[in-house]
Design brief:
The complex is a heterodimer. Chain A is mainly alpha-helical. Chain A has helices at residues 5-14, 21-38, 73-77, and strands spanning 83-84, 87-88. In chain A, helix 1 (5-14) crosses helix 2 (21-38). The two termini of chain B are 20 Å apart. The chains are: A mainly alpha, B alpha/beta. The interface between A and B is large, with 49 and 70 residues.
């Protein structure tokens, strides 16, 4: 197994994903299976190969540093589960 | 007059201009077909008949004034991954419950600007993660095709399974779709439809729910090569809202369709002849070679040595980018929220309730490969392998104009048949995923029926921004294969 139960718990926490014990057991097996399978990439020597950063060669486009967007707060809040006076509402963070 | 839903886009466009029928009549025929079929096929997650009729009336007015766009009055289905202003868009995930965008994706805006009519939102695998449309929160889509002598329900491919099934069952004239590892081409192949994933950058990704941003690309599914060409010309554009969209003129792809393949060289990659390839797939591929040869193409064997590493590197890159993209679903700004004692518990519970099993699996793999100490070993390694895959194609394209392969390892399978083992499911994309890793255009064209009586497709892969060669060669295969028998209508309530 390339990942154990504790690792599954740790990455689930990092991913902000609550997992049940039954899910932990299943994910330990499935994630390990997938990682063992991708390990075949170790057969290739990539020490001198640059990573791909873009699929077509083109220079990064720049735009003028101008405000071209905004002023629709109501649209942005429209789909929020809870709003108050133009703000998103979340559970209390600071005591 | 034949049924309006049987027409191709090219035919309907012609007859709308001649006023043989109105856009409204064409929309009504499709709305009726959807009402008859959707209970059995589940292709649409949200039909929008009122909107369709309103848009059709606008089209009729424009046609009357002689101001028709290239898709004036043509009814289309839209994959639920495309944000549509004022119309619920969920990517078929519970976590986007009730999300109603306040903006329009660039691709759909381009279609509406050309006069297309929206019939509704089409089902897909949750966040486009799947190869059989079985991971949708709204339930699986059923393929209109059945095996000879069997009533078993078959999958329509995925992730654009609603798009492929709706086009095959005549529930729209064409559909938008997206392709991250094969999600346009693979469903097209198993439903007897045409699907093209254009070159990365050809279509804007603005307003498309993101899965893996360096791989995602939009494209059409249609019933003929010509219709796919008409749709792609309308969908593609340079868009300042997507920095990866390219500033290149969009060709009139339909003009390329009839140009034939005489003098072109078509490559046959030896590495795709995988051990264990089904004999009927091998035979279909050989048949494709013969068709292109008799149409005047030269055939040349080519080598793409890193083919076998495409799928494993994809299953690092795609989940890594997905885990990052899906971090935005936190129960704060849109969609589902589950209560929690504190903000972290709220995030964790919302995401646990909102995401399905396949999405969770990919988020965890992605989080793991990007976590401290593992980035170089996984993500960076996979991006280096991508360079090698791209170099393989670059070398091959020095001597050939396009490459021919099968689209899928086999025909449509039954619902539930492959959902037990994620790796087995991933192997459905073995012939399509290389194309996304290299950013190239790829097209699936119906080429015949399997021994089970269900469709099979051939894939054409082209040089970057040379979709026109694919349309030329695709048309030759389509013509040689002849019209595919259409699926027998078992799905209409009246049938």
């Amino acid at each position: 197994m390339s990942v154990d139960r504790a690792t599954v718990r740790r990455i689930a926490r990092l991913a902000r994903l609550a997992v049940t014990e039954a899910e932990e057991a299943r994910l330990e097996k499935e994630v390990s299976g997938i990682l063992d399978w991708v390990a075949q990439l170790d057969e290739i020597d990539t020490s001198t190969v640059p990573p791909m950063t873009r699929v077509a060669s083109m220079t990064m486009k720049m735009r003028k540093d101008e405000v071209t967007d905004g002023f629709y707060a109501a649209d942005i809040l429209k789909n929020a589960p809870e709003v108050d006076d133009g703000y998103f509402v979340v559970p209390k963070i600071v005591e | 007059m034949s049924k309006l839903t049987e027409l191709t886009i090219a035919e309907a466009r012609e007859r709308l201009r001649k006023k043989s029928f109105s856009s409204r009549e064409l929309a009504e025929a499709h709305i009726a077909a959807i009402a008859e079929a959707n209970a059995a096929l589940n292709a649409y997650v949200l039909p929008t008949p009122e909107r369709a009729l309103k848009m059709a009336e606008t089209s009729d007015a424009r046609l009357a004034k002689g101001e028709a766009g290239t898709l004036e009055g043509i009814p289309l289905g839209i994959k639920d991954l495309f944000c549509t202003k004022g119309v619920r868009t969920t990517a078929c995930s519970h976590i986007l419950d009730g999300f109603t965008p306040t903006y329009e994706s660039t691709v759909t805006a381009n279609l509406w600007a050309q006069g297309a009519v929206m019939l509704g939102k089409l089902n897909n695998d949750e966040f486009a993660m799947g190869s059989s449309n079985e991971t949708s929160y709204y339930g699986p889509v059923v393929n209109p095709w059945r095996r000879k002598g069997s009533n078993a329900r078959l999958v329509p491919g995925g992730s654009s399974g609603g798009s492929s099934a709706a086009v095959a069952a005549r529930l729209c004239m064409g559909a938008t779709a997206t392709d991250t590892g094969g999600s346009i081409r693979q469903p097209a192949a198993v439903t007897g439809t045409v699907g093209i994933k254009p070159t990365y950058g050809r279509c804007s990704r603005f307003g498309i729910v993101a899965f893996a941003s360096s791989l995602d690309q939009a494209g059409p599914i249609a019933r003929t090569v010509e219709d796919a060409a008409i749709l792609l010309s309308a969908m593609a554009s340079h868009d300042p809202k997507d920095t990866t969209s390219v500033d290149l003129p969009v060709p009139d792809f339909a003009a390329a369709v009839g140009k034939g393949v005489r003098g072109l060289t078509i490559g046959i990659p030896r590495e795709y002849r995988a051990p264990g390839m089904a004999p009927e797939i091998e035979a279909l591929w050989q048949q494709g070679v013969e068709w292109l040869k008799s149409a005047g193409a030269n055939i040349k064997e080519v080598s793409l040595p890193h083919t076998k590493y495409a799928l494993p590197s994809y299953y690092i890159v795609a989940p890594a980018e997905a885990s990052s993209n899906l971090a935005r679903y936190d129960g704060v700004r849109y969609g589902l929220r589950e209560k929690g004692a504190d903000v972290i518990a709220m995030y964790e519970k919302t995401r646990a309730a909102g995401f399905g099993a396949e999405v969770k699996r990919r988020i965890l793999i992605g989080t793991y490969v990007l976590s401290a100490g593992y980035y170089d070993a996984y993500y960076l390694k996979a991006q280096k392998v991508r360079t090698l895959i791209k170099r393989d194609f670059d070398a091959a394209f020095e001597t050939v104009d396009a490459i021919l392969t099968p689209t899928t390892p086999g025909p449509a399978f039954a619902l539930g048949e492959k959902s037990g083992d994620p790796l087995e499911m991933y192997l459905n994309d073995i012939f399509t995923v290389t194309v996304n890793m290299a950013g190239l255009p790829g097209m699936s064209v119906p080429a015949g029926l399997s021994s089970e009586g269900t469709p099979l497709g051939l894939q054409l892969i082209g040089k970057a921004f040379d979709e026109e060669t694919l349309f030329r060669a695709g048309r030759v295969i389509e013509e040689a294969a002849g019209p595919l028998a259409k699926p027998h209508d078992w799905w209409s309530k009246a049938a």
